Amino acid sequence: MTKKTILLLNFFLLFSIGLCAQQGDKEKAKAETDRLMKLYQKLEGTYQVQVIDSREKVGFPLATLDEIVSKRQTSETVYLWLKSNIRVMVLPFSEINKPEFVRLPQTAYYSSDNLPGNK
To answer: What is the CA radius of gyration of the chain?
Structure first.
């Protein structure tokens, strides 16, 4: 084989490896998106995004769902701040396991004067 042929074969080999790696990355990204969508459906109604003193629309990052799971307490409501005026209220297990539990709307708008959980 000539040097030119060897170089050409190496180029195609590296190109093929790159394509396979990209395909693997796409599959991983899709698997992660699927996982987060299932988690979103499972957690729906057990947390609430609260917008304070604003009417802005909230872009909720799905990765926050993992934080909701990790921060949820047995009997205490937890608040995760996304921005200075947007927080996520995470209900405790004791609340969501009650037979009379009613799922929360995903987003609520509050004035800082009547904000629930404000101590």
So the answer is: 23
pTM (predicted TM-score): 0.74
Backbone angles phi, psi at 109, to 5 degrees: -115, 130
End-to-end Cα spacing for the chain: 79
The string of pLDDT tens digits covering residues 63-76 is 899 999 999 999 99
Task: Return the bridge partners of 88, or none.
Answer: 49, 80
Q: Which domain holds residue 8?
A: 1-43
Same domain membership, residue 39 and residue 13: yes
Sheet of 86-90, strand order: 78-83, 86-90, 47-52, 107-110
Query: How many domains is the chain partitioned into structurally?
Result: 2
Whether residue 119 is contained in a domain is answered as no
Render pLDDT for 4-52 as a digit per residue (tens, 0 to 9). Answer: 666 555 555 555 555 455 566 778 888 888 888 899 899 999 999 999 9
